[in-house]
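ok so I'm stuck.
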Amino acid sequence: MSFTPADYQAVLDRFAACSDPKYKAFNEGLIPGTSTAYGVRVPEIRAIARDIIKKDPTGFLVASVPGSFEEIMLRGMVVAGMKIPMEERLPLVEAFLPLIDNWAVCDTFCGTFKLKKPEERDRMWRFLLPLFSDPREFYARFAAVMLLGHFVDGEHIAQDLELLESMRQEAYYVRMAAAWAVSVCYVKFPAEAGALLRRRTLPPWTQNKAIQKIRESYRVPKEDKEALLAYKALVSK
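replied:
not stuck anymore, here's the structure
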């Protein structure tokens, strides 16, 4: 089955049919600097991605033009959801990373991966490792969000915390992702992540944001939340 230009136009027509001007305005308010072409909700984009993956995902990637927010989001979902070996998927992931220019595309892309087989997880982990120190904002955020979504486990927790501790990029969405990841590590491994916070070796902003996010969690005991306040870093304004 071949994905034709007519098929791609049908995708754009479906976007237009599902567009919601109010949601478009709301979504653009959440993603500074991003203009969505249609205002299509994420579940609808996921449904379109599932249809494409069942039919001809490779043909779609050849035919698609990642110009609008929704087209880029859809392309990422198809790449992340394709049922192909990881050695074939990773070049597609690498080619997609330059298209990510906002947190919504980044985080949705990360959340679409299903890494079940040990060899898939190992290949993805090795792919991610150099990205934690990448100076490009959304390359580094991709690494941190993939970590928090797929690799906070007993096998990786020690290296998780080392990698997050090493992230010194100043870009806002990298710092926010690092703090978010530390908070997820704390919820699942409070002893290990708590030791990191007690050392205060994270960048001060990341340290304090991580503590804030941990204190917002319903899965952390009240006494832990109170104790963490003692480890807040002083941040000059």
